[in-house]
Design a protein that fits this description.
It contains 11 helices and 2 strands; from the N terminus they run ααααββααααααα. With 249 residues, it is mainly α. The protein is globular.
Length: 249
């Protein structure tokens, strides 16, 4: 149950971020890119420190092979979902024009929700699976990292909804739906953590690969699209240091 409780805190953090976002109708490109950069740094560091070592803790041929396959399996799955499941990208409260043409408002909201759901898959898995051995320091580090990055992420989820002309009440309901879409991934992560050791290691690696794919393929490129690469990069470094220093507290 530790994974479920931790997941609920992550969901609450996303809701809190969305409430902050509802106070704005628009955020600047620089702010958006800095938020994305910070989230990238937190997610990457949590993945490298909290997931990858467990996936390769036994340096023997079969476990190592399972770990390598898991990393690529996670990346390939998210890649296929990203390619074949219709969704849209957004930034600074605006949907990309090429993705909004000929689409009604309801359709655009659905596609936006799907886009966030794709991001939430690896985050939910990571939060659930790290508690397979109980509330260890490693598990708490990953869970707290997800909480930290979900607050600003929730903010930049809510703003595009208002940018569509949606009223705050409806935007909050959609934000709630998006936040709770992490729950299936959290439950799946908890269940995967109960499997035999070799399979657990595979899914640790799988979750790592999924997170790195999302960050590298979508979040970092989106943070570099508006000429604020330097700000986004320093924000990424800040996210890295937050997670690293957290281990000494």
């Amino acid at each position: 149950m530790y994974g479920i409780f931790a997941g609920l805190f992550v969901i609450l953090a996303s809701i809190a971020g969305s409430l902050m976002g509802l106070a704005f109708k628009k955020i600047s490109h620089r702010t958006n890119d800095m938020i994305l950069g910070f989230a990238s740094g937190v997610m990457l560091t949590a993945a490298f420190l909290g997931l990858l070592p467990t996936a390769f803790e036994s340096f023997r041929p079969i476990p190592v092979t399972a770990g390598v396959l898991g990393v690529f399996a996670g990346a390939v799955l998210i890649s296929l979902i990203d390619r074949f499941v219709p969704h849209i990208h957004f930034d600074s409260g605006h949907l990309h024009e090429s993705e909004t043409k000929s689409r009604g408002g309801g359709s655009r909201v659905l596609l936006l929700v799907i886009a966030i759901a794709i991001h939430n898959i690896p985050e939910g898995l990571a939060t659930g699976i790290v508690f397979s051995d109980g509330p260890t320091d490693n598990a708490l580090m990953v869970a707290i990292s997800m909480v930290i990055q979900k607050i600003p992420e929730g903010l930049i989820v809510a703003v595009p909804l208002l940018g569509m002309g949606m009223k705050r009440g409806k935007a909050f309901k959609i934000s709630l739906l998006i936040a709770f879409m992490m729950l299936p991934g959290i439950v799946a992560g908890v269940l995967l953590g109960t499997l035999p050791q070799l399979l657990t290691s595979f899914f640790y690696a799988f979750t790592f690969g999924a997170i790195v794919y999302v960050v590298s393929d979508e979040i970092i490129p989106e943070s570099h699209e508006h000429g604020h690469q330097r700000s986004a990069t320093f924000s990424l470094l800040t996210g890295v240091l937050v997670v690293v220093l957290m281990q000494f507290i």
